[in-house]
# Entry
Amino acid sequence: MLDWLYRKFSHDIGIDLGTANTLVYVKDEGIVIREPSVVAMNIDTGEILAVGNEAKDMIGRTPSSIRAVRPLKDGVIANFEVTEKMLRYFILRAKKPHRFIPPRLVIGIPSGITDVEKRAVVDSAKSAGAREVMLIEEPMAAAIGAGLPVNEPFGSIIVDIGGGTTEVAVISLGGIVTSQTIRIAGDELDEAIIAYAKSKFKLAIGERMAEKVKIDIGSATPMEQEKSMLMRGRDLLKGLPKTVRVTSPEIREAIHDCLEAIVSAVKTALEETGPELSADIYDRGILLAGGGALLTNMDKRIQQATGIATFVAEDPLSCVCLGTQKILDGKLPNQFFKMMHSTK
# Structure
């Protein structure tokens, strides 16, 4: 009787709890939320003032009593209390008013996090109102969402470049054979651009400006037609507003070390892969997912470094969330669910 009530009145939710963005899938409805993982709060009272897009718009523009924070850092929870409130906000937004049974959640997590960090995710989700929480490694969820044949007896490789972490996973027969996780990804690219602007131009720029520069003119290899744009900030010497023109080769120089670290992680994962799976990967290629996959020529950079054909997933930003969708929709064999961490 209880199981019937759960099926009838509960609705399952899949969450890609990312450092940069949170995506929420509701069974039978699709992806209903796609917003930044940012919370604006009053630091004196602890009151949450805004979450998601509204909070991101406040970054760098708030009075001293208000702070816009990212509760996740490098793919893991840095602020338990704020993460719990953010999760609660997203779950309540996704939850239908007449659904009175708490939902079951599937949450994508980095493959390299510790048991303590996993427990923090589960506790946050349960405190936010979940009935049951299942955790799945993000590269596995991304591979499923991208349509890789994860249950087949041959090797596939996915490189998930998110906001806080880059994860490389070789997958076969429903499991991760070998993986590499580094805490260098989109956020570190932004930080590298901020440091470059400070060093070369004596210009202080904010996170939003750095991200815009990365998206608009950033590239992993030389472009056929190089670009330039105006970069605005504060002159560090005079303390006044200042604008400089920056070029795509300069931004490529700024992010060079970060890109080399990502390429190195891919190479290390390939070196640790057995010969049979290596042959499969050579035949099938490397798949890129996550927001970092959208950096211009990122696929070319990895292909040049490895000699293996490299492709960008059809919807790289949504791969993890689409993977939770397929799990909740029961499109995987039962044996796969034994590989997830389930906590009731």
